[in-house]
Amino acid sequence: MEKPGRMLDESIYGVFAEAGRDDRRKKISLTSKTNKPVSFVKGQTLQPTSVSAKPAEDARAKAASDDEVDSRFVLDANAPNAQGIKQAVEGPKLPARNKLSFNQMANNYGKGFSMLQKMGFTGGGLGRHNDGIANPIEVQKRQGKMGLQDDGEMVDQDLYGNEGEAGRRSLEELLGTGTTQPKAKRERESVSDGWKRDGKPKKPKTVYKTADEVISEPAMRIVDMRGPEVKVASSFAELAASLSGDSVKSLKELRHNARLLVSRYEDKVRAGMERKRHCESVLLSVAKETDRVQAAAKINETELAGCKKLVTEIESLRERQDQGTLSLHELADAFNHLRSEKPKEFRVLEAADVAFALALPTARREFATWQPLKQPVSDRMERLKAIAKWQDMASEKTQERFTALIEASLLPCLRKALVAWSPREPDRCIRLMESCRAVLQSDCADSLIAEVVLPRLRSEIEGWDPRLDTVSPHLWLHPWLPLLGSQMDILWAPIRFKISSCLERWDCSDSSAHGFLQPWWRVFDPCNWDPLIEKVLSKIEKAIAETPVQPDGQNLQALRSLFSWMDLAPLDNVSRVLESAFFPQWHAALRRWLRDAQCDFSEVLQWYQGWKSLFPKELLEQARVQKHFASGLEVMKHTMTHGTSDLPDSPERGEKNNQPSARLPADEISLSLSDYMSQVAAEEGLIFLPKKQQRNGKQVYQLGTATIQLDKNLVYVAPTSGEGEWKAASMDEVLALARATSRRKK
Fold first, then answer.
1. 3 state SS for 459-502
2. What total of structural domains would you count in the chain?
3. Radius of gyration of the chain from Cα atoms?
4. Residue 724 reports pLDDT greater than 50
5. Which pTM value belongs to this model?
């Protein structure tokens, strides 16, 4: 029988009574030696001196209860070296960190944060040593009418701010073999079941594997942590392969020494190459000087006197050049004269170098005040021809000196003039570039076009607004096409973008767009032209679709607008617009009219012929347009012959239902011949209508006042007297009979 105390404990603590039973027994055993009842201290606090002997008794009792472990090896939290041992075993404790800044805490918590600061809070965790929680506890609101749950009651929150440092992956996670579970679930699984009354520790279950399962398991994985990145290899062969070639991460000393040696010898090789180039230049200069000395040694007394005279003349030219009384043209003529008179002395003294040295300041002086775009054409050509003479003087050795003369004198003047030039006045600039290309046999004109002219044109296009500017850009861009050609392709894209933006708000009734786009038809490439014309056709297609087809009063503005674009738009695209926007309404209006009880077939025929005469001849030759007009004629003939009980479908409806359009058999009506007869009757002003009678199962028609029958490719005419036989006749005979009968009736 259990003791009363045990029953009392169970009634109070329930299943938790067993866990604290030993402690209560100890307390009872300590007090039962005195055989006195338990007394309570009222209204006072026990002093530390009154329990001074109690820790010793607790230590002895603990030593007696832990006989299996030596007390020297028991880790006590109060021991002096306990913190050091714990740190050595568990590692240093990470400092607590705040996830929120002081400004965020002040904004979120207000007065509470101010009170924390007054209590000495300076950041980090709470407590004297700043090792408490550093972040406020978050509360997860439970949904309405929901009780306590096994999952979701606790907020998985990092209160100490160490999630970044502590959240390192283990080796099992790195290898991918570990199972990832939620943190709350892992903590619940780690809780022991010892708190239960009959709780017993569960033994790990032994799992046996077969040989096939062991073979099917993934191979061994080797973790290579020697470099800056962790690598995983499945075998030693793979690990050895990763150490070869460019992926070598070992032998740092050897690789460092190799780099030092390579850099050292690289400097030596570079120095050797520079010395080689210097020696080559010295040898070339020495060779030239040797040739000059040898040529000077070979001259005789007469030639020596000629050299002295040549020096005297060149010196006189230099004096005139210093005084500014010698023009570039005169200087070029003087040196050309000296070269033709004394070619050997000119070559020995290398007077060409002296000539270019004197020409440079002269050219700078003349071109400093020259305004090529404002001067007459004659003056411009004289200046260019004067500098072109120096190109004839330049040889292969002095060609660089002529290029330097151009770049130092002429090109700065031309660039200055082009910077102040208005791109909307292209004529003078075009003539200047043509003159430069014709006179100067160099690429100076091409460099000016690429560096100055095209950028100026591009900037002018960027500032052009088609909504406000009344001058079309083709007036000042197209004159450049013969000179620049394909170089202007970079200008078409920005123009197309600006035109396209204006077409967004364009009304198809405005005919000015056609005149604006027409100059660009043959200039734009397909990549820039096709998007513009498609936008125009889409606008017109929308307008045609919104215009109903009414036989009593038709609005033709949208269709005429479409026909006006036929010279710029492909005919196939125009016929596509008609097929999608116009012909569905046209077929619907034709059927409504034919279903009317008071329908006059002659009016329907005139309406049909009117539409065909409205369409241009180029469009009538398109297959799409022919198909729809033939379908309309077929519907008309079917209605006049069989009534409106069974009208054939329109081409759109037949294609939509994946069914062929209903057509009359070939032996009943020949569409081509009847279509031709209707056109001829319209041209001649004759009535062409089917009659309410048949002959041999064929439809009989009225042409003027004559009666005819169509049979495949033959036309039969009824006798005029009403008696006799039908005869086959030619078209001229049929028309003559129709006209004669008409005159006789009148």
1. HHHHCCCCCCCCCCCHHHHHHHHHHHHHHHHHHHHHHHHHHHHH
2. 3
3. 55
4. yes
5. 0.48
